[in-house]
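Entry 14. Ran structure prediction on the chain below.
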Amino acid sequence: MNDQKPDTGSRFSFVLSLVIFVLLSVFIVKFVVRVFTPSKTQPPAYSSSASSVSSAAPTPEPTPTATPEPTPHPEQADADLVGYPLDQYLNMKQTMLDCGFDETTIRLVKAIGTNEAYCNWGKSVVKIRFDADYKVCRIYAGDIDIYNDGAVVGDVNDILVSSMQYATLCNSAQSDVSNYLKSPAAAVFPDVLGDDWTVVRDSDYFYVKSYVDSQNGFGATLHTNFICRYTWDGVDYTFPTLVDVTFDD
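Output, structure tokens:
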């Protein structure tokens, strides 16, 4: 009986094939696991995109804030109209208010070429004089002071005759003088808006001076001057009280 020895080459080939198969299987398994398993260290896709967009976007510049225009003084237009700097106009106006003038009567006009302004109070022309520093130093009408040397002499309502007082006194004088005439219906008085009437006052009385053309008892027309003297507090909607009438033919 012949003893046969095992084929050593065949056994070696079988073992080598088995090792190769195992290694190949391990490689395939690892490859499949790597492909289908997401990486834990890789950042999300959107993170990279957002980062790039964020870095690419320009930084917005702050919108500049407009500087508001200064609000003009409410009386700047009035000062410009008169032609004085605002401070000088306000000083003049306040001094006049202190003297009894009111907003409706302060209608100032600059006297060109002088250091004075003026306004009308009834039939009186009131002048406002300034010193070298453009401060009010005197307010007066004719030779009557209302303000002088930094002090109020008196309230203008107690010194001068206002437009209302002037009209009331002239109308009262026409009525009172007519009572002394022979033919009052034919009497003719001058226009009270003209220059033929003079109304002045002192501390106690108002004086009204003018003239009337009227007929005497023989029908002749006479031109007669008169002066009426009144007491009155000068308040609106009241009437003066006649003291006496003086006639001068």
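The chain has six helices and ten strands. Will compare against last week's run tomorrow.
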